């Protein structure tokens, strides 16, 4: 201190006069008083306060995110350790620093020299302890604290120029949402309701008008809600009963009511579980197929099927009882809202048609393909449409055909049966069994696709022809159909040469054809990459999603993973009463065959276009680093409008992405009057969970190409 030279620390007598001593003592007392006044506020100390305040700030901000402390590491790919213990360590060091400071202040009353010496010792001690803790701390622990400190700007005393500039940019870029004015109204599907494009088609004989015709500039308006829309009925009750006001269409009930498809019952639409081929219930029909051919083995050998021309998808809805999932599809046609009924019931389905292009699925993936009076002319034009089913059917898989040519003797039916018999024989499909269901008065023929190329090589005529070797059976996006067949893989290490493991073992085991010599999506050997991804999503779901996001999972049934890799997220939800549509974007690694191999299902899609589903189809959408990828090619506002279209009111959107993209999505969600359930960031990565509301804009935007 400034007065230290006057103290008697050297043991010699002072030669000062009494007056001098009095003056010196007076100055000392004043100095002590001033020091005591300043040290009463440890935050203003010149040595320790910076550390103390910093630690207190970190502790406060960590507590605000306490519900994620065990889960925050889920944002990164590596395992996280002891985030809570790190926070506790900071709190304990804070209390120790405070008490030490207070005790040294009390001893300052005795002498200034003692104060100086004690302060010096305490500073040295604190410095050494801090250095020791810094040495003991792991790098990721320090990084975690810094992230928590920097990402909670509202706790800082001063805003930054970046914050101020960003805030001004937001105010200048207000999203001007409007409600879509289109002929389809609340049922608008942009790529299927592009009426202008449909008007310019040269023909419709191959169902071109039911195929996708996406507008060049995707809409940014919001689809209106049906009048009187209500929160959907929960599964499993929804399989039998939905609100009429949510899907207010009665035509199908009038046309198909006698076949027990759907009936109107007051404020409800009810589904007795019937269909054209199973008027007395889908479960009986499902068991009829199993009894006809034991090798079908629902829920064991057969796990994933394709249901063509599904109607209201009661067949797929009741296959859940047998641990089977069905990718059901039907066109948006005169069978008004059939796929919309299915989705409202909680049954997976998409709007699609067998027309001029390949289906959006890879080759050799479905265990069974089913057609019950699906109204597809399989036998015409060289069997082009049946050859497309051959492409997606696994070698050794079954085609179940339940249609009038199997069991009726009209001249038309007999003619179709003869043409089908000739075609399937030329395709080397084996007719395994024909059986009649006496209760429903229908019959079914079951064919089996070969597992070798022997039949192909021994055919007298190459008709249908084998595809050229350069033809890629897995290239499907807007690829025209070919009237040819691809050879069956013969290499034992190739996909399709063996049947997958039985369910549920296939869910957790890497496919046999993933090679350790191949590098996976995340840089590890492919089988290890698969396992690591699954472990990661199990940890994320159990630690964060199930309990940390405020989601009532009993209200969740229809789920979409908008950017799936190995299907790990869907696999981690296996024990919940949900189904997951795994979407593999066109510019992502082609891992969809892996997803099917493990007993899950999915589809290819370009997120710069609308998805082939009805509005309000999904309870939960999951987007892992999708938005940051999409914004490189198209407008985020268009994607957000599509998310709003697919998501039900009260539905949730979970976004995992970089912090910049998270901020953009959160701003758009707020502009849509959505509820922000969770917003969290760490290591430049963020997690956002938002909930859609019933809000619709009052301002209307007419979409010219969607108006009749």
From TrEMBL:
Which keywords does this chain's UniProt record carry? Glycoprotein, Membrane, Methyltransferase, Signal-anchor, Transferase, Transmembrane, Transmembrane helix
From the record, give the transmembrane residue ranges. 16-36
* InterPro entries reported for this sequence: Put_SAM_MeTrfase (IPR004159), SAM-dependent_MTases_sf (IPR029063)
State where composition is biased (Basic and acidic residues): 129-141
Signal sequence residues: none
Q: Where in the cell is it found?
A: Endomembrane system; Membrane
Q: Which example biological process does GO assign this protein?
A: methylation
- What membrane topology does the UniProt entry give? Single-pass type II membrane protein
Catalytic activity, EC: 2.1.1.-
Cited Pfam families: Methyltransf_29
State the residue spans of region: Disordered. Answer: 43-172
Where on the tree of life does the source sit, at the highest rank?
Eukaryota
Q: Give the main EC class.
A: transferase
Q: Name one GO molecular function term.
A: methyltransferase activity
The UniProt regions of compositional bias labelled Polar residues, in chain numbering, are 60-70, 82-115, 151-164
A Gene Ontology cellular component where this protein is annotated is: membrane
Family recorded in the similarity comment = Belongs to the methyltransferase superfamily.
Report the PANTHER family cross-referenced here: METHYLTRANSFERASE, SAM-DEPENDENT METHYLTRANSFERASE
Name the UniProt record assigns to this protein: Methyltransferase
Q: What organism is the protein native to?
A: Helianthus annuus
